[in-house]
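Support case: zinc ion complex. Customer-provided input:
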Amino acid sequence: MDIFLLKSLNKKAVLLKNFKKLLSKLRNTFVRRLLADGPITLSQIQTESQLFQLSVRQLREILTTNRVDYRGLIEKSELFEKVVRLWNEIRSAKGADNLPDEELCKICMNAPVNCVILECGHMVSCVECGRQLAECPICRQFVVRVVRTFKA
Ligand SMILES: [Zn+2]
Ligand SMILES: [Zn+2]
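Agent response - structure generated as follows:
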């Protein structure tokens, strides 16, 4: 066989092996986190079945960090439903380039407006910018809470 071909095949095999190693490492981290009931972020989750493995505490954590209101929800299935919705919303979010200006966060101009400021009720920013606000940029009212909004 051609020596160059052989070399390149060999290289491919090594690459594939490294890739597989990396993949199993990633999977192990995820599993380890799950077992330890440690902090999980939605970006670490690739499939809905992985969501299904989360504990109630992890579901609550995800909802809290994403400013999703879950007061009054007690059943795990209710929390799970909210997390799935959030996960789908985040995954299907259009890139900022495709959004009309009025739907863009007025602070970073880089994400859709997806939260409401309480108590004033103004919708001006994305969750990431909203959680850093001390007062509403429109009416200057004190920000009590920022709650994520969902499109129907
Ligand atoms: Zn923003
Ligand atoms: Zn306001």
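The domain at 99-152 is CATH 3.30.40.10 (Herpes Virus-1).

Case will auto-close in a few days if no follow-up is received.
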